[in-house]
Amino acid sequence: MDAILLQILNGLDKGGAYALIALGLTLVFGTLGVVNFAHGALFMLGAFCAVTFNKLLNLESVVIDPEQTTAWGSPLEVRTPYVEAWLGDFGAVLNDYSVPASIVLAIPVMLLVGIAMERGLIRYFYKRPHADQILVTFGLAIVIQEIIKHFFGANPIPQPAPDAFAGTAYVGEIFGLGQTLAYPWWRIVYLLFSLAVIGAVFAFLQFTTYGMVVRAGMHDRQTVGFLGIDIQRRFTVVFGLAAVVAGLAGVMYTPILPPDYHMGMEFLVLSFVVVVVGGMGSLGGAVAAGFLLGILQSFASMNEVKAIIPGIDQIIIYLVAVVILLTLPRGLLGRRGVMED
Amino acid sequence: MKFKTMNRRLFLRNSAIAGVGLAAPMHFIRGAYAQDMSCNVPTGDTVTFGWSVPLTGAYADEGADELKAFQLAVKHLNGEGDGGLIATMKPTALKGNGILGKKVAQVHGDSQTKTDAARDNAKRMIERDGAIMISGGSSSAEAVAVQSLCQDMGVIHMSGLTHSNDTTGKDKKRYGFRHFFNAYQSGVALGPVIGEAYGKDRRAYHLTADYTWGWTQEESIKAATEALGWETVAAVRTPLGSADFSQYITPVLNSGADVLILNHYGKDMVNSLTQAVQFGLRDKQVNGKNFEIVVPLFSELMAQGAGDAVKGIFGTSNWDWKLDDEATKTITKSFGAEYGTPPSQAAHTCYVQALLYADACERAGTFYAPEVIKALEGFEFDGMGNGATLYRAEDHQCMKPCLVVRGKQEPKDKFDLMEIVQVVSRDVTTYDPSIFGGELGPYDAKQC
Amino acid sequence: MFAGLSRNDWFLFLAFTAVILLMPIILQPIGAAYPALMQKMCIFGLFAIGFNILFGLTGYLSFGHAAFVGVGSYAAVWSFKLLTMNIVPALMLAVFFTAIFALVIGYVSLRRSGIYFSILTLAFAQMSYNLAYSVLTPLTNGETGLQLSLNDPRVIDRLFDGAGPGLPRVNFFDLYISGGGYAGFYTCALALIAGFFISIRIFRSPFGMMLRAIKSNQNRMRYTGFNTRPYLLAAFVISGVYAGLAGGLMAATDPLAGAERMQWTASGEVVLMTILGGVGTLVGPVIGAAVIKYFENIFSSFGDATLHDVFGFLPDAIEDPLVAFLSLFVGDGWHLTLGVVFMLIVIFLPGGIMEGLRRIWNLFNRRRPGDREATPAAQPQPAE
Q1: Domain membership flag for residue A332
Q2: For B322-352, how does the pLDDT look when each residue is reduced to its tens digit (9 = 90+)?
Q3: Distance from CA of C56 to the nearest CA of B (A)
Q4: pLDDT digits (tens, 9 = 90+) for C59-100
Q5: Rounded to the nearest 10 degrees, what angle do helices A2-32 and A209-219 cross at?
Q6: Which residue of C126, C143, C186 to mutate against B (max B Cβ within 10 Å)?
Q7: Backbone region of residue A61 per phi and psi (left: phi > 0; alpha: psi in -120 to 50; beta: other values)
Q8: Homologous superfamily (CATH) for B184-317
């Protein structure tokens, strides 16, 4: 029982990450009709916002202490972060919470990056074939990733979760199920965070006038244009929004996985599969498919399942994608006539 | 077919002309290909070494450190810097003026922790840059693949960090040499120590990196722990470079195992260990005992990556900068002065390998590979940080003591993360080379 | 077999053959005339030509072609292990197995078009890769890579002579293909030339016409009563076989098959090559492959020191920032150059290098202005 609950929790947690990345991807596709292969790079950029923020907090003053030496004989350098020197305890707390705090940096940065990307590049590709969009954004992804590699190196840079959330949550005890049902705190935080962001995006589209117009535009761009609404500008904002969602997903993911320049590419394929399974351009579909694939993958990794079908954990996601595409051509919740030629 | 023969003849004639006419106007063409293609015996006043190190991928940290060590070794060989271990090595033929009067030049390439890329790299350095010796590699898959290529090309491969039994076992090569210890030796060294610490009645769960090193380490550690009376609950393979291990760790929680053995290295180990700790494994009580994690192959670089998670964890190591002998102090000082950090075990083994090769050439009096191989085989030396060491002729494996280490509870700084629990003597770690099979192959693998 | 090609085509073919065979001389001045690199250029050229038959003619963008390279490599290495070190059976087996594999994957994937097709091929390739990496290790030796060993049976070789000392080399009867040297390069070159010839034939045949018609308007084709599926499937299998042959040659020049050559990024690489050279052109893909492989090998080994050498004549105040900026693009950063060039090509020159050459040609050759410019870039053009 515990084992099953644990796998469900693990699946939800993975699913949260998939859904969050796929959400932005499908948002862009649904509104702008653009297949964005650079979306993974945006996720990665978000993660590096957290890294940068942490680095800024950890700028240190270096004092060489001639009295002490290191083990190999050179003088010892004593380092103190400026933040702690200036702000004292608050600085230490800030440093501890640098990952969630870096959201403050990530939102404006990602919004800017998103808007710049749309205005500078993507808008010239609305009329071009999807293959061209894939190719140019693929090229852009390589460029972004290499620039990050140049400045941050090829090695992953671990980002600690705040101390309060670094340990294990005994979820079982909360529900009176015993100690075996344990899960890392930060992963639970991530799951809740992704649910909150997904909820916020849906609320924005569903309950604000702005969102309503965007939805109308997704449905029929021309008519909305005839009504005298500058739908183009709204779509630019939507692209920025998608970049922010991807970025936030990246920021909060850093304590789970130390970010490196290549992490975007690894998630890209997966998130495309999620989008396609959910149905291109369907927000609900992307979220549903994200959680579905997360849980399926988690179950496929159980030793009991692997004993029956060896290797299933490695291919389950792709297998599901193939089956869904062959039986439900438009994915789980896709609309008719999207990307069929 | 007609065109082919015609053009071939044309080519032969033209290349003769070209050999004279186009005497390599660009500076990055070294040597004309008309003479020997692959054995690369140097003719100019330099001799080129090729470093194939992973600068990206799962073992990138180690690769970067290895490259630093190689560059330091070249400096010392050429008589720059403080000379490093050349002063402490016994016996030595090195004079610190290059090798056989030739200055050492170097090229390097990123092997990406991938076998294909590593071979491409090595091929390029051999064919284009005329490298006479290839070294490096942080993964046994790379080492095995590259040393077999080197055998084909008639070039010596001095393995860097490779811990699989296969490198000098099943897949050993006449042209491949390994200074680093192997999984079998880890098992022999580690078994008694963890047996004493954790008792004889334990149930172990292995997570294993899915390639040659992981397989042989799993096998060796399994053999060592089962000899103690432990039971192996399960051994699960994980693809190299899996970032998120949560799906592999969750099944451990309810498996009834009370020890988790992580046959992972590099980034994989950092990720799997930290995630295992996040999942509360180390706070668990199973079968009335504390749940324990063991990482059979341990390194300072990984300990830095994993942070607090390594505290109290047992493992083995080839070498550690905190060892208390003259050579260790010399190399630590030399490396520390150059780069500001103490050398990792990967850096140490690579540095030593470069020196050993140079010394062998010097002793053989030639760069001709079969002679250099004979100089290395059965070579007994000391003063390189590991104590008295033998380059065994039967399998090209170094026989020397190895270390059992443990993550320190109270580190002084970020380089002081491991304490040496025991130095396991060479008598204990020496084994019969025939248990792993394999065949070295001929000395004159390729006629030049 | 030899009928149906115009004089221009023959001229193109002969020129192509000459250039490929003379590569060791032509590439000498740019430092690329060493066998390992030239082999790579030929092998990837072949791979790209094959990819182009699918993507260039039908417009179906496959993101999973690397899987065929992998299958070809594994088949070839198994042939070296079990049968003989001769490349003839190895390449035949590589072609045979990839053809079957491509038939199965093509049959399923071609039920969808557009991005769905891309995702299906991607999914199949990733599945193959992940399986080769995990449970299929008895067959593929996983991450370690499938390698020759002394204990391999090599049935046919053993019939003629006993096991020699050490590992045998891949050969074509008495000619050694692996282990460096020009024989390996000429083998790959001949395969490339043969592949190129077949590609010209396909481009000029009614079958090629049909594929182009599918690209321009598949619906209309269907309305006129054509069943397009068999044509697409044939094109898919042909292009898969090219990839398999490329994989077999990779194994022949270097008898090791690693799973990572099946990864989706490897599929992405061939897309880059094809686009860079010129989609739908005959020689474009080969040029793209050669350029990328050249940069990968030569450019990537440029370091800051080389840059300082080159710009040493400038005053330091200019030199240092310039070198700092350029160092972004060379050495380890050569992928950045690739990304930037690729983006520029997609944005400004969708026809790739071939279109660039054509534009330059037209600039100097304005006999019939407007005539050429009017042709859309993506449409296949014979190289001239």
Answers
A1: no
A2: 898 999 999 999 999 889 889 999 999 999 9
A3: 29
A4: 899 989 999 999 999 999 999 999 999 999 999 999 999 999
A5: 70
A6: C143
A7: beta
A8: Response regulator (3.40.50.2300)
